[in-house]
Amino acid sequence: MNTLRSANMPSSLLPIRVTNLRLSKCDRAVLGGLNLMIDEPGITVIMGPNGAGKSLLLRSLHGLLTPDQGLITLGSLTVADSRNEQAMVFQQPVLLRRTVLKNLAFAAPEIAKTDPQRLIQALESVNLADRADQPARMLSGGEQQRLSLARALLSEPALLLLDEATASLDPASVLMIESLVKAQSAQGTKVILVSHDQGQARRLADEIVFISAGQVAEQSPADQFFTAPQTPAAKAYLAGEILL
Amino acid sequence: MDALAEAFRLIITLDEDLFEILWLSIRVSLSALAISAVISLPLGTYLAITKFPGRKFCILLLNTLMGMPPVVVGLMVYLLLSRSGPLGWLGLLYTPTAMIIAQVVLITPIIAALSNQVIENLHQEYSDTFCSMGVTGRRAVAAYLVDARYALTTCILAGFGRAIAEVGAVIIVGGNIDHLTRVMTTAIALETSKGNLTLALSLGTVLLALSLLVNALVIGVREYAAKRQYA
């Protein structure tokens, strides 16, 4: 388990360097030699059309996929060595078939043993303290995702990855998750999230990485990306055109 | 009708012979079930979450063994335990232990194959999350077994249903010896052939009731799990 990091301390996993990342899915090259460097703290939002390779990139950063070729380093660490300092929230929350509290206890057995009150605090932070003893899978979709986020944040990760974590959630849950993510970022956790939601990207992003056809088409500060996108693909995406 | 009425009288008056047979049947099947569960649950789990060459063949073999004819199992165990067989020196043939061994051989592939499917489904669902949380090895296995507890219970009950209703294997290795290895199914076969329908019907009724109970338990467990989203 990680030690608690001080507020505003930059993530120890920066800079994140992705070099010549190639990854195929069903014999189709989805990421074709992608290069990327993320060296600023804050929130980076990865955007791009469906099939561009956003989720594959995120999963590669987290070590869930082994690239065909290429190198990923996070600070001075490899993906495998940095795994304990990362946490990921998936689009579909996967919760164990146990109570809400036991889901957290399973994710952080040490904390459950030495400081169980922290589990309750984690539930309070996502407004689920009163549901602690309910079966986790009986929660609504929004509540399940909030629990997934609380579970991910328990380890005080240096890098938090979110893969369309608020897709198809109700606005109240989206807002709660966004505020938690912002708060976590303010404490020094580097946040990288994949989102199709331009509104969300405008609300959260410090930086945008726009991916198209398995390559980084554009990487720029969020304000600049939304006011003056540099590439035709990004312009078309922001204009709502369908990109194939 | 007279035979049926007499059969119910035997059940209601707790007939000594009837309950001796019933008790032995349950004792043999529960023992076989306990031994089989210890073997088959870890085996099913191991095959579900471990990748190794020949894994698919092992699963295919398990699925094939699920449908193994009880008389063939009985014959195999007989050859193993008969005086000239490799384990003949143990002197187990025609004892309840031999019947337990036969039932273990019969139901282990069933529970292992069913539990394999259950754990494999769970593994597909949990693997990314477990990988993300760094949950591996024994901790992952324990989590699968705990989270699949209700589904695994129904697998075990299916094994019990198979064991208690089985006749072919236990009659070969048990010999249907009165007061020693006579269980419900073998007694029904014998009493029917002797024309003693009263005892056969009594035993049949009890066997049916047991089967009903097991199936009710399976449905109850499934409904409870589904209601709490634990299925």
Question: Topology of this protein?
Answer:
The complex is a heterodimer of chains A (244) and B (231).
Chain A: E1 16-25, E2 28-38, E3 43-47, H1 54-61, E4 69-74, E5 77-78, H2 79-82, E6 86-89, H3 100-107, H4 109-114, H5 116-125, H6 141-153, E7 159-163, H7 171-186, E8 190-194, H8 198-204, E9 207-212, E10 215-221, H9 222-227, H10 232-238
Parallel strand pairs in A: 3-8, 3-9, 6-7, 7-8
Antiparallel strand pairs in A: 1-2, 1-4, 4-5, 9-10
Helix pairs in contact in A: 3-6, 6-7
Chain B: H1 2-12, H2 16-49, H3 55-66, H4 70-81, H5 96-133, H6 137-147, H7 149-164, H8 168-174, H9 184-194, H10 197-227
Helix pairs in contact in B: 1-10, 2-5, 2-7, 3-5, 4-5, 4-8, 5-6, 5-7, 5-8, 7-10, 9-10
Please provide a written account of the structure.
The complex is a heterodimer of chains A (244) and B (231). With 244 residues, chain A is an alpha/beta fold. Chain A has helices at residues 54-61, 79-82, 100-107, 109-114, 116-125, 141-153, 171-186, 198-204, 222-227, 232-238, and strands spanning 16-25, 28-38, 43-47, 69-74, 77-78, 86-89, 159-163, 190-194, 207-212, 215-221. Chain A is built from 10 helices and 10 strands. In chain A, the strands form 2 sheets. Chain A has a 6-stranded mixed beta sheet with strand order 6-7-8-3-9-10, sandwiched between helices. Chain A has a 4-stranded antiparallel beta sheet with strand order 2-1-4-5. Chain A is globular. By secondary structure, chain B is mainly α. Chain B has helices spanning 2-12, 16-49, 55-66, 70-81, 96-133, 137-147, 149-164, 168-174, 184-194, 197-227. Chain B is 79% helix and 0% strand. Classes of the chains: A alpha/beta (244), B mainly alpha (231). Chain A binds chain B through residues 62-64, 83-84, 86-88, 90, 94, 96-98, 106-107, 135-138, 151, and chain B through 125-126, 128-129, 131-135, 143, 146-148, 228-231.
